[in-house]
Specification:
alpha/beta, 37% helix, 11 helices
């Protein structure tokens, strides 16, 4: 897929109906030969829309006007290029806990949670948040995570978590204002509700920081898993992470996680972790597949805003 095609795909399948600003901007970038030439000089993993828009926002540039965006990127390209090369998309969306909760609540309690690609670890607190699935509410914390769930009987209670660990190549710290500003920059332009959710989830994490380890998802996973308490059910999970991992390394991770004790929850795009016999997705938008121990259970949207259960 060319860079232009990737931006059209992002506009059509991810931003459409979710972010008019990024949908409009992505179509504009796809037709902008100057910007495409700059992006094509980057490694493929550094060309993605989320990363480019996050860097421009973090540097104080405009994303709501394609013409102003074009001028800003051309004028400030050396700084943008530097940030694109040193940073990664680390969207730490606590809302994704809403699609994980039905699986987590059904496992033998208590749980030891280990997130791969944890960023700042905000998805390690599913027991501290509250949830709303239509009229059904679960939990009593903040933030309140809303999810439109089809085909699902929502859980009656949140899980009991006794240990939380995260693995990331570059862990972020919600007590560091610079790290929080990067997490904020990755939130899509007009999503004020997600910014409020980030602040509330960051307050939860800052009050009880998780164990975050800088490391590789293959080389360093067994050692971190071994630190989980033996009396708890180990749950290794990840969401929208493996697309950033080279295919061979991804395969090695899948083999490894299958050999470790406990359970494995994956929430990734179907082209990243393919499954046989998947039902049709609910619509043309980009959906992840939620799976437990390699068995697909549901289609989910990227920010946890909706899920369609079929398992």
């Amino acid at each position: 897929m060319t860079t232009a095609e990737a931006y059209v795909e992002f506009a059509r399948r991810e931003a459409h109906g979710v972010s008019p600003t990024y949908e409009r901007l992505s179509y504009a970038v796809a037709d902008d030969h100057d910007l495409l030439a700059l992006l094509d000089a980057l490694p493929p993993a550094k060309r993605q829309p989320n990363l480019l828009y996050g860097v421009v926002r973090w540097l104080g540039g405009p994303v709501d006007d394609p013409a102003a965006f074009h001028d800003y990127v051309l004028t400030h390209w050396p700084a943008i290029d530097t940030e694109l090369r040193r940073r990664a998309t680390q969207t730490n969306e606590a809302g994704r806990c809403a699609v994980l909760l039905p699986v987590l609540a059904a496992l033998p309690q208590p749980l030891a949670l280990l997130e791969v690609g944890a960023s700042a670890g905000l998805c390690l607190y599913p027991d501290r948040y509250a949830y709303r699935y239509g009229e059904h509410e679960v939990g009593d914390g903040e933030p309140i995570l809303e999810c439109a769930a089809a085909g699902l009987v929502p859980p009656r209670r949140v899980p009991r978590v006794v240990w939380r660990g995260g693995l990331d190549l570059n862990p972020l710290d919600v007590r560091d204002p610079d790290d929080v500003s990067w997490l904020d920059a990755l939130i899509w332009s007009e999503h004020a509700h997600r910014r409020a959710r980030l602040r509330a989830a960051a307050a939860v994490a800052a009050a009880d920081p998780p164990l975050l380890v800088r490391g590789d998802l293959v080389d360093d996973l067994p050692a971190l898993a071994a630190r989980a308490p033996a009396e708890a059910t180990l749950v290794i999970f990840h969401t929208s992470v493996l697309y950033q991992v080279p295919a061979a390394r991804r395969d090695a991770f899948v083999r490894l996680v299958g050999e470790l004790p406990g359970h494995w929850i994956a929430n990734e795009a179907p082209e990243v972790l393919p499954y046989e016999g998947l039902p049709d997705s609910p619509d043309a938008a980009l959906h992840n597949v939620l799976a437990l121990d390699g068995k697909p259970l549901a289609w989910t949207r990227g920010h946890g805003q909706a899920m369609t259960w079929f398992g």
